[in-house]
Amino acid sequence: MKKCHQGYPTKVLSSLLLLVIINLVTVQNADAQVAITRSKLWVHLDEAGLLAYDHPYNAGRLSYPGFFNSEPLYGWTWNTPILGYRMVRGDNVYHQSVNNWLFPAYLTVSKELSLETNYNGTENPLGAQAPEMVASGSVLTTLVEEVVTATTSILNIEFKSRSMAWSYPKYDDFLITEYTVINQENETLHNFTFRFTVPLYQAGINAYENDVEYIYDEQRKVFVFYDDRDYSLSTPDVPQVFSFGPGPETGDVADPGDIAAANAINHQLTNPSALGIGYVDIPPNELDIAEGKTEGTLQHLVTRWFSSGSPSSMPYVESAGDARNVTIIPPDSLTAPIPYYNEEAAQALKSYRQAKEDGDQNAGNVWERKPEYTTSFGPYTLNPGDSLTFTRIICAGALDWNLASMGGSEATKQLDMEYASEIEGSENEHAAIKAFRENWDAALELIETKKQTGYYTPTAVPPPTVGFPPKTSLGEELEAEPVFYDIDEDGYLESAVRLKWVPVADDYRDPITGQEDFVGYIVYRSNVSIVGPWTAIDTVLADEAVIAAGKVTREIQTEPGIPYRYGVTSFDSEGLESAMTAYTYSPTVGSFAPTDDLSKEVLVVPNPYKQVSGFSDPAEMKRITLLNIPSVCTIRIYNLSRDLIRTIKHDDGSGSESWGSSAEILDDYMLTEYRKEVAPGLYYFHITNHVSGHEGETAIGKFVIIK
């Protein structure tokens, strides 16, 4: 709910005629940050509720879908740094920071970061009315001697933030942050403007950067950014040409993995998403009230983020000393709307393509295709103790991830404005923007329940998730290990994977209905990537689940030698399914039965190896496998000159061993003993048996690597 609180009577202790813009930055004098990992939108935040970073040039951490450590990176992960804040007095513009890893931010922590959890609505007495994850903290502005003199310093403006996320489907694509800004100084603050600036370019795994476009959603009052075709700065009207995959039809839209090389096995779209950042419940200022408005006016500015060679005529850009450019709003715009992209501006709010078509001077140009986006509102007068409250929404939407993981022109055409449309409800509505709109509306729905009841109240809640995501150090991850089991009286060994996950509690009740509605679990697997395509392969009813050592244990028959990732969800009698937070990060490969006496011929698959392994998973691209080997043995690989290339100790009890990415995921890649790429040619393997009763038995064979 929007508020402008009066903390003191109208008596003014001291009147400061200040013209102020504060544009928050990541706090530098504190190392604290938390990762919001409950929804599909993962964000690292600091005490000010802003995008924190974990490496000087890794910038802000925002990932969708949320796999900070996944390979390849998806979407916006390391492309969102916060660019400092500026203060303007009179005609003077002061830079308190340009980029957060180059200049200190000079904000002190007034409340340390805290993280509250209410997983599945079961840890808080409020049940589902309390968010599943809440990060809160606050910062206070401090004096900057190098930039601002004591007579003009802006002190003791406190920013309190409370950021919230949910895993429940329908509510898991956005982050809601409640802000409270308080004048803690004993003097009145005039012309205070809140501003949030963030670069929003998407690079994907192929690093095509000049390819972001945007639309303005009039109904939701928000700009939506999405990945489109890459344009060179030297030829701004001619998109880059790609000869492979969907490239000839849709260019690098959504950054497919197969447009740069022939015979690529990675077809995934790594940027099939759209992202928007906006504010709701903005308090009206005096100008808004005079015009009869009940909500404050949100102003927008889109300009170039990173370019040392931008034209001198480019508006609102000043070259910074570190060769970056930083957006500067002219002082005369601070008491009036920003000149461009405001509902009161001469040039109407519109999409990138419409601005380009209209020949707008300040929009629709190639410089905006790697944009810095600024939203601001104000100015306000804050007496001592006065406060402002407002709500920020960071929201994303994407093409169905199962389609995105398979790639192809059928998928990219749903994201290419040459084939899709920004018009809501149209038959060919841009898939990511359509999903964004649905998710944004769900966020607004949740915010409305807070206004009506005092709590964020989802309309429905699925049964609990059955594990935490890997790589988050939260524990209770889905476990997967290859095993064998007997399927006939002859004792023939069949390959399987044993999964273990957290069971839903026997006394679980739906936190909204109070009903015991839990039914069972669904097991999924994917042979391509961590985002899909996921296929349901098994259903485990609650009364059939085998509990061992506190975990549900299920053995799933699988094809030996094929890498799969696994995921598990729960579902209830209403058909509601939990989020898939329990999944395996790396593929699990079903094992072949061992040949302990070396009575079968040892096979190498594939042989010859021709650049790729043949598996659909890009992480498994460089791998060969030796089959029919003993359960315990040593494998030595030699080149034609009899030089030892690699020694592999095999002792996992199976009859297969991989040389390549399956053995050490994302780290091996068929490397030599000295971590070098293996050269093409003829190779020999020598196997020494260590199985009891067969010690010293050997097998020799050969294979070919072609590159």
Write up this protein.
The chain has about 700 residues and is mainly beta. It has three domains: about 5-445, no CATH class; about 480-590, Sandwich (Immunoglobulin-like), CATH 2.60.40; about 605-705, Immunoglobulin-like (Sandwich), CATH 2.60.40. The radius of gyration is 29 Å and the shape is globular.
Topology readout:
Elements: E1 3-5, E2 20-23, E3 34-36, E4 42-45, E5 62-63, E6 86-89, E7 92-95, E8 107-117, E9 133-141, E10 157-165, E11 174-183, E12 189-199, E13 212-217, E14 222-227, H1 247-250, E15 273-280, H2 286-290, E16 299-304, E17 317-319, E18 325-327, H3 352-358, E19 371-382, E20 387-398, H4 401-406, H5 409-412, H6 431-453, E21 479-486, E22 493-501, E23 518-526, E24 535-541, E25 547-548, E26 551-557, E27 563-572, E28 582-583, E29 588-589, E30 603-605, E31 609-610, E32 623-627, E33 633-639, E34 644-650, E35 656-660, E36 681-689, E37 698-706
Parallel strand pairs: 2-12, 31-37
Antiparallel strand pairs: 1-20, 3-4, 4-5, 6-7, 8-9, 9-10, 10-11, 11-20, 12-19, 13-14, 14-15, 15-20, 16-19, 17-18, 21-22, 22-26, 23-24, 23-27, 25-26, 27-28, 27-29, 30-32, 32-35, 33-34, 33-36, 36-37
The overall number of domains is 3
Work out the helix count.
Answer: 6
Task: Look at the structure and give the mean pLDDT.
Answer: 78
Question: Low-confidence spans: pLDDT under 50, at least 5 residues?
Answer: 5-31, 54-59, 70-105, 144-153, 306-346, 662-667
Shape: globular
Work out the radius of gyration: 29 Å
Strand content: 25-35%
Task: Please tally the β strands and state the result.
Answer: 37
Largest sheet: 9 strands, antiparallel
What share of residues is helical?
under 10%
Structural class: mainly beta
Cα end-to-end separation: 62 Å
